[in-house]
Amino acid sequence: MTTKDEQKPALKPTKILRCKNPECKAWIRDIFTDKEQLEQTCPICKGPMLRSMKHLPPVQNKIKRAPRKKND
Ligand SMILES: [Zn+2]
After folding, report:
1. In the Cβ-directed half-sphere of 2, how many Cα atoms lie within 13 Å?
2. CA torsion 15→21→24→29, rounded to 10°?
3. What's the gap in Å between 37 CA and the centre of ligand 1?
4. 43 alpha carbon – ligand 1 mean position (Å)
5. Cβ neighbours, 10 Å, residue 42
6. Nearest-angstrom CA–CA distance, 70 and 48
7. What is the rounded CA–CA span in Å between residue 61 and residue 36?
8. Which of 5, 8, 58, 65 has the most CB atoms in a 10 Å sphere around its CB?
9. How far, in Å, from the CA of 49 to the mean position of ligand 1?
10. Taking all residues of the chain, what is their mean pLDDT, rounded to a whole number?
11. pTM
12. 4 CA distance to ligand 1 centroid (A)?
């Protein structure tokens, strides 16, 4: 048995939008949606999306602005 503290990020109820189409598994975090757009469309099937909640690990706000790496 390993006793290392494997820190699993606590899941938090997070606002998401999910595709209305039950066949389609697409969903996006609400914070990643385009607020200008009132109606979100599914990135996959272009159908309408529903507001929903999902338990997700919290997003780190640090957006890595990875500067272009030289060939490495
Ligand atoms: Zn879809």
Report:
1. 4
2. -10
3. 17
4. 7
5. 19
6. 41
7. 21
8. 58
9. 7
10. 84
11. 0.66
12. 40
